Amino acid sequence: MGRLVVVEGLDGAGKRTLTESLTAALREHGATVTTMTFPRYGRDVHADLVREALHGAHGDLAESVYGMAVLYALDRRGARDDIRRALDEHDVVLLDRYVASNAAYQAARLRQGVDGPVVRWVRELEIDRFGLPVPDTQLLLRVPVEVAAERAVARERQDTSRTRDAFESDDALQARCARVYDELAASHWLSEWRVLDGTRSVAANREAMVVLAKELYLGK
Predict the structure, then answer these.
(1) Domain Thymidylate kinase-like, which positions (predicted)?
(2) What are the pLDDT digits (tens) for 148-175?
(3) Intra-chain end-to-end CA distance of the chain, in Å
(4) How far apart are the C-alpha atoms of 219 and 200, rounded to whole Å?
(5) Backbone angles phi, psi at 56, to 5 degrees
């Protein structure tokens, strides 16, 4: 059975870059690795409904905290067997976003903290009811909200297919989400969390990934 490792953080934190760097470092140590990104836009109808709603479609759907949360959860429910199969076939399965994203964003939207009812509800829905695998390790890529926003804007300019949605362009929501992420990490919600500095240089992050890969794979 492989290890399930999740990369979490704000939009624009650099999760994709971290996932790619960690994947390369793990493979250098001889680990077999596969990755998956949530939401699975273009692959799952629930994920596509999320994206459409966040860009103004489907009436007031995007305004419903629990409605959107269920769509995010159903996307992962549809990938549950794929995740389990990947864990059987690989040493490490890396996920870019997972259950904690749902908890963080919905709590932020409702102005709740880690001990609030929506975080508890997300866990009951996705872990207890839908039976999603519990992560072995969750990595919070922490960056200042302003830095994440600047990166998201720059990404949007470079890639027109990655236009920011209603959540990504809401700076106040992002700030509240960052606070909830910190609370989730501090309480080791669901599993062990590690906090990584997302503002470090490329070279420094590369060195950190080598060390982290060794701990995640060889130290398991």
Answers:
(1) 7-203
(2) 777 767 766 666 555 666 677 688 999 9
(3) 11
(4) 24
(5) 100, 0
Q: Are 65 and 54 in contact (CB under 8 A)?
A: no
DSSP-assigned beta bridge partners for residue 138? 6, 193
Residue 17 has pLDDT above 90, yes or no: no
Q: What is the tens place of the pLDDT at every residue in 23-72?
A: 998 998 899 999 999 999 999 999 999 999 999 999 999 999 999 999 99
Domains of the chain plus CATH, in order, are 3-217 (3.40.50.300)
Is 193 exposed, middle or buried (CB count within 10 Å of its CB: 0-12, 13-18, 19+)?
buried
Residue 63 DSSP class:
G
Asked if residues 97 and 15 have their Cβ atoms less than 8 Å apart, the reply is yes
What is the rounded CA–CA span in Å between residue 141 and residue 192? 14
Q: Kind and range of the H or E element at 107?
A: helix 99-109
Kindly report the pTM of this predicted structure: 0.89
95 CB-near residues (< 8 Å, 6+ apart): 4, 5, 6, 7, 35, 36, 37, 38, 83, 135
